Protein: Futalosine hydrolase
Organism: Streptomyces erythrogriseus
Amino acid sequence: MATAVPAERDAVAEAFPGPVRERELPGAVVHETAGGPALLAAGVGPALAAASTAVALTAAALEGRPYGLVVCAGIGGGFAPHAPLGSLVVADAITAADLGAETAEGFLPVTELGFGTVTHHPPASLAEAVAAASGARTGTVLTVSTVTGTAARADALRARHPRALAEGMEGFGVAEAAAAQGVPVLEVRAVSNPVGPRDRAAWRIGDALNALTEGFGKLAPVLESWNTA
Ligand SMILES: O=C(O)c1cccc(C(=O)CC[C@H]2O[C@@H](n3cnc4c(=O)[nH]cnc43)[C@H](O)[C@@H]2O)c1
């Protein structure tokens, strides 16, 4: 389970009570819960999140106990009206929204430049089961390197990604690291703020962290049966 910061990691950990063992790796500290997931505060932004996740995946694979699933979890911005504050979003598509080139005719994703990928798809049955268990909505979760802070940028993202429910800064990086090792990925976001004009007074980080804890309490059995299937 990869979050950006320790506060998110600890909010998820609350759903898996019991002793936690810390494992220090080069560039990553993994919290191993008893009988639950391994938790990683992977850092903010797609690049650091990808690097940290790759370290944890590689260490586990070299030890002969590779992970069966990577979950990117954290708080995020929600696109109104479909993803209100405090709600949970499960990604059925994890899309890098600003990976490409700006042209006079508009934004070109990196795929149209002939490189790589811009979207990873979690296993559909898993995303649906997790959403059903936790009461989350499913849709596209965008990964951005710059938090959206204007109505114009929010509208541009909506126009380009009509199925987008939320944005965060790590999902695509975590998904790239997982895909490189053939491991499926999922992303779960609890909405802490609306995507749109910057308004620090509108952030509800505590509510979103509580929603993460509550949501993972409900969806834990789904993840467990996925990992043992
Ligand atoms: O300074 C701001 O205006 C601002 C607005 C929202 C979030 C931030 C952060 O620095 C948090 C980044 C952190 O949290 C995730 N996150 C939370 N909300 C959003 C968002 O609206 N857009 C993108 N990422 C968001 C993100 O995954 C990072 O881990 C600052």
